[in-house]
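In response to reviewer comment 3 from the previous cycle, which asked for concrete evidence that the modeling workflow produces usable outputs, we include below a single protein chain processed end to end. The sequence was submitted unchanged, and the resulting structure tokens are shown without manual editing.
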Amino acid sequence: GLVGSEMCIRDSMKTMKFFMLASAFASMIGFSSCLNGGDYTNSYAGEDFVYVNGFMGAVSLKNQFGYEYVPSNKEVAADLESGKYAYIAYSYDPTTVNNTTKMIDVQLYGCSQLADEYVLSSAPTEDDANAPIYDVTSSGSTGGQVTPVFYKLNDVFIPLYYYYKPANNNDDLKEEVALHNFTLYYDQATDFNGSTMTLHLRHKIQDFDEEDNKERTSRAYEFRHFSLATPLSAYKVANGGKNPDKIVIEFEQNTYNAEYNEDNVKSETYEIDYKTVVENYNKLAGNTSGSEVTE
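The workflow returned the following structure tokens.
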């Protein structure tokens, strides 16, 4: 994944009006608005989260409702890893969308692989973190709010807004980003409370050095993927087959700098209306069973 103005694809797309999926209530084709300029009267700009499936050199990019994006410029997606999620930005002609085959011809502006992070069934300890998080939401390049996004009902992409070391080139930037690990923890005995499931997000930097950390003066965000299948299944077992109405993400916030100390770090929470996520996904997916639609 890529971070911020240097690392987030939307910040380089000057012709595209900002659009971000804020919950499962998302258009199946994820378009935003017409591109500016007379040459694009039939082209719409879109962004979406997709599951990548590759076979024999071919790449399938499928959104949560089963629509497959077919890029005319396949080389843009050539480096995406099969079996993982990605974020794509594209243009398309809505008159060519085939709702029978669920195929959408697009031209990709860019794509970003999303790293998979761990979700562990234990309470976080002091050893599980050595760095703060600025936030789990972010204001977009044109003022839109970027928030956690679900793919179907079990997978969530969280925009992790954190401090990182400025880099002079893309390789150094990738190396820095790879050092940042994020994990969700939960203790079933204390975090399944009534209709709410709480998940504790912790940030740990590999090869951490306190002096080196002072160089982390830039602040931006990237999406990381978390599978909530296990905690959601455990919650349903403990609550008579019911989903939680709310999912609360608790995290350690420092809005001043990258230091991890008691003076600047405080516990903060972000609440997801998961009941609405489920209702909207099932409505758009044509599902009435109350469980996730699988392909």
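Residues 1-41 have pLDDT under 50 and may be disordered. We consider this sufficient to address the reviewer's concern, and the full set will be provided in the supplementary archive.
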